[in-house]
Design brief:
With about 200 residues, the chain is an all-alpha fold. The chain is about 55% helix and about 0% strand. The two termini are about 20 Å apart.
């Protein structure tokens, strides 16, 4: 019988296959970034689980908005920006490490305080959240999307550099750019969801 975690992953896949691919890639990169930063093995594991669950709030988004190919209206953008809070409210009822819940709520915060939902500034957002902001943006730029083709690694790296100090923690950007520049990131073909156990008990 599938555990609760695998059931959540299947729900995400059925709701939006592109989001499912996105979270798999983010999870791989978060684990590698955490390792590159010298974090403990336990912190690397938490970083990976945060990657898998950071967009769980998209389960609450209207499918017609999530799958829209054309330009989003202002109302639709506001709706999509609620997914970190939706995810936070889903996860806070379960026995999940608080760092995963924080990554879910704060992965769209900006270093200059201009992000959402809580407009955290600088290091007010925990380290893993600031790392997630970079990894999430990187994957969004280089991954497949309905509304555009993926950016090249060179263009995506340039975008990260342009966002230093405003959208992203500038020191972490330098570390991430160095990591990407020094390695060839390969993503597993088989389902990562089946290889990473996490039991989410009922409230």
């Amino acid at each position: 019988m599938l555990n609760a975690y695998q059931q959540v992953m299947r729900l995400i896949y059925r709701h939006d296959s592109l989001t499912f691919l996105h979270i798999k890639r983010v999870a791989v990169l978060m684990e590698r970034f955490a390792s590159y930063m010298g974090l403990t093995s336990e912190e690397c594991y938490i970083a990976k689980l945060g990657g898998f669950l950071h967009d769980i709030g998209k389960l609450e988004l209207a499918p017609e908005v999530l799958h829209k190919r054309g330009k989003l209206t202002e109302k639709e953008i506001k709706h999509i920006k609620k997914h970190p809070v939706f995810g936070y409210h889903i996860l806070k009822h379960y026995h999940i490490d608080k760092r995963i819940v924080e990554m879910t709520r704060w992965h769209h915060e900006c270093f200059d305080g201009g992000g959402y939902p809580d407009k955290l500034c600088g290091t007010e957002a925990p380290l893993l959240c600031r790392m997630m902001a970079i990894v999430d943006a990187w994957e969004a730029m280089t991954g497949k999307r309905l509304y555009r083709s993926p950016l090249s690694h060179e263009k995506a790296l340039a975008e990260l550099q342009n966002g230093k100090g405003t959208q992203f923690d500038p020191e972490l950007v330098e570390h991430f750019v160095a990591m990407i520049s020094s390695m060839h990131v390969r993503f597993p073909k088989r389902s990562v969801a089946s290889s990473v156990p996490l039991t989410i008990p009922k409230p």
